[in-house]
Specification:
With 431 residues, the chain is of the alpha+beta class. The chain is 69% helix and 9% strand. It has 2 domains: 7-199, no CATH class; 280-431, Heat Shock Protein 90 (2-Layer Sandwich). The chain has 12 helices and 5 strands. Strands 1-2-3-5-4 form a 5-stranded mixed β-sheet, covered by helices on one side. Helix 3 (46-76) packs antiparallel against helix 4 (89-107), helix 6 packs antiparallel against helix 7 and helix 7 (155-242) packs antiparallel against helix 8. The longest helix has 88 residues, at 155-242.
Length: 431
């Protein structure tokens, strides 16, 4: 099915209008030739034939010149109603064409048929009132010429020209309606195309912003956290070297290497756009265990006595990859904050499968903080820090889950996450 907003779709109406115009011009010239042929066949004598041929040639040339000029004017002002772009010379041209026709009618009534085409020209170039007056006069000329030729006035001589005049008026009204409909259709479809383009641009911008938010969360929860740990541990290794504790420095350098290796793995997976689960049903549980071990190792490398353990409650089930990624990133972000800011001695990550939801709780016994103040300051920062809590909340709520952060000064911090367990086609229960 052809797209109605495509160029081929909305050029149908203008094509019809162009065909009507071409038919009118071709009809005028054809009727002129018919009149010339009829005059020659009737053999009225050289006194009529030669002047008729000469005037017919002048009329045909004048008509062609006018149509060419009119065509150029239409191209210069496309989409404008004809009555509002009639050139000033057009009425003089019409008067010349009509005058030559009247002279031909005085020579031979065989040119009466040209009146039908002249009706359309007057309706096209003159106002409605003036056109109707002109059509009445042209009809009178035709009736008079036929009367003079036959020597008596008959009913068909009156009805024929009158029906022709009425038909021309009706056809002109139809033509103008088609023209205006074509113009309105082109304008409406052009507006539709502009609206489509604007909608596509808006959707593209929305997609870009959404992807930017997603990239920001992924970078913060993986690369940024890993690089931050590398910086802190390398500083601790440098301090150990300055103090002459080469064994400690060596151990911390190994920790830096391991952290860099893990970060490189995350970066490669991030670039490839692979699913976090990679088809491993134990991905989330194993990843949370490794995250706790890594945080404890990093804390030891920095000289921080942080113990981190993982606890599983209930039988784990396979979940969609976005769920597993969200829960893993939440644990990584919360433990990173515990390591860097809380001065905690213990951190516990608990993954619970119960009923129709999965829960993840991250607790530390650190110094705590004011949650409202932290969230407000994160929005106001422009240096790229403080993004973790806001990004974590956005990630969880996007999956239809809920997140609660409880913390008070000196009371530690608990981050609680709840996600509904939706049906998953490939899910299996692990014994």
């Amino acid at each position: 099915m052809r797209d109605p907003a495509s160029p081929a779709g909305y050029m149908a109406a203008p094509a019809v209008l162009r065909m009507l115009r071409i038919t009118l011009h071709a009809g005028f010239l054809a009727l002129l030739l018919v009149g010339v042929a009829a005059t020659l066949v009737s053999e009225p004598g050289p006194a009529v034939v030669y002047p008729a041929l000469l005037i017919s040639l002048c009329l045909g040339g004048l008509y062609l010149a006018g149509t060419v000029r009119e065509r150029r004017a239409a191209k210069q002002q496309p989409g404008t109603p004809s009555s509002s772009r009639v050139p000033r010379y057009a009425r003089f041209w019409l008067a010349g064409v009509t005058g030559l026709w009247v002279v031909l009618m005085m020579l031979s009534a065989d040119f009466s048929w040209l009146a039908f085409a002249l009706f359309f020209l007057h309706l096209h170039l003159l106002s409605t009132r003036h056109a109707v007056v002109a059509i009445v006069l042209l009809t009178g000329v035709v009736i008079a010429a036929q009367w003079e030729r036959q020597g008596e006035l008959q009913v068909p001589m009156i009805l024929g020209p009158m029906f022709g005049a009425v038909f021309a008026v009706v056809m002109t009204v139809v033509y103008q309606s088609l023209y205006l409909e074509g113009v309105n259709q082109r304008q409406a479809l052009e507006e539709l195309r502009r609206t489509r383009s604007e909608l596509a641009r808006t959707q593209h911008q929305a997609g870009v912003l959404t992807e930017r938010e997603r990239l920001a969360r992924e970078i913060h929860d993986t690369l940024a956290q890993g690089l931050s740990s590398i910086v802190l541990i390398s500083r601790a290794a440098e301090a150990s070297l300055d103090a002459g504790a080469t064994n400690t420095a060596r151990e911390r350098i190994r920790t830096v290497q391991q952290a860099a290796s893990d970060n490189l793995t995350d970066a490669r997976r991030f670039v490839r756009g692979l699913s976090a689960a990679e088809g491993d049903p134990e991905f989330l549980v194993g990843s949370l265990r490794r995250t706790c071990a890594s945080v404890e190792q990093q804390a030891a490398a920095q000289g921080i006595g942080l113990r981190c353990r993982f606890e599983l409650d209930g039988a784990p089930i396979r979940m969609p990859a976005p769920y597993e990624v969200a829960l893993l990133r939440a644990a990584q972000s919360a433990l990173s904050n515990s390591l860097r800011h809380s001065s905690a001695g213990t951190a516990v990550v608990t993954l619970t499968f119960v009923g129709s939801e999965v829960a993840l709780d991250i607790y530390d016994n650190g110094r705590g903080f004011d949650v409202d103040t932290a969230l407000a300051s994160a929005v106001e920062r422009t240096d790229g820090t403080g993004f973790g809590l806001r990004a974590l909340r956005e990630r969880i709520t996007a999956l239809g889950g809920a997140i609660e952060i409880e913390s008070e000064a000196g009371e530690g911090t608990v981050v609680g996450i709840r996600l509904p367990l939706l049906p998953f086609d490939d899910g299996t229960a692990d014994d």
